[in-house]
Write a structure and sequence with these properties.
Strand order of the largest sheet: 1-2-3-4-5
Number of helices: 6
Number of strands: 5
Structural class: alpha+beta
Order of helices and strands: HEEEEHHEHHH
Distance between the termini: 24 Å
Shape: elongated
CATH architecture: 4-Layer Sandwich
Helix content: 40-55%
Number of domains: 1
Radius of gyration: 20 Å
CATH class: Alpha Beta
Length: about 190
């Protein structure tokens, strides 16, 4: 993509790697690793073992609801995998790249728990919501109207199921919970 875009402000790298790369500068060591497409292709984990610091941008949002649709993740199951992978690192500080502060292991655990609840709520809503219920009779011949109504009701059920537990635990819950439920039900149907 860098070669395609030919942007002089983002030159091609002189060093590339597949899965892992250890960068040493003086007495400092950074361990770079790639764990597949989640948020976007090429999103690299940067670990400073001596400092017990991990940098992973756009995956964990310390104390906050994720940016809409899993931070615009290109691969929602891959995004879930990356959150779980973060938990395997020995870190005290997480540099996540956004919102108001650095993160902790507790922030990762909280987001992981939320994501599991989100997946369960969207899955339950997909199973229990009936197609065609509540559709205006004039729209029954329009498959987009029927399916749009179904998806909206799935998302509403997901939001309603998650709100009591999570609305006070994650800042911005009210802003992006609809997007998260919509992206989750779509991922469960398509991915």
């Amino acid at each position: 993509m860098l070669a395609r875009d030919n942007d002089p402000n983002r030159p091609l790298p002189t060093v590339t790697f597949g899965d892992t790369y250890t960068l040493k500068v003086g007495s400092e060591t950074l361990e770079l690793s790639y764990h597949g497409n989640g948020h976007e292709p090429g999103n690299v984990f940067i670990y400073a073992p001596a400092q017990k610091t991990l940098m992973v941008v756009d995956v964990i949002f310390p104390g906050w609801m994720m940016w809409r649709r899993f931070a615009l993740a290109q691969d929602v199951p891959g995004f879930f995998d990356q959150v779980e992978k973060i938990k395997t690192f020995d870190f005290d500080t997480l540099v996540a790249g956004h919102v108001t502060r650095t993160g902790t292991r507790a922030d990762v655990e909280l987001q992981s728990e939320f994501m599991k609840d989100l997946k369960a709520a969207a899955g339950a809503a997909l199973k229990s919501t009936q197609v065609g219920v509540g559709v205006d009779p004039y729209d029954m011949g329009n498959p987009w109207a029927v399916f749009g109504n179904y998806i909206d009701r799935v998302v509403i059920q997901c939001v309603n199921d998650l709100t009591p537990k999570w609305s006070a635990k994650l800042a911005g819950f009210d802003v992006f919970i609809w997007d998260q439920c919509s992206a989750m039900e779509q991922s469960l149907r398509v991915d």
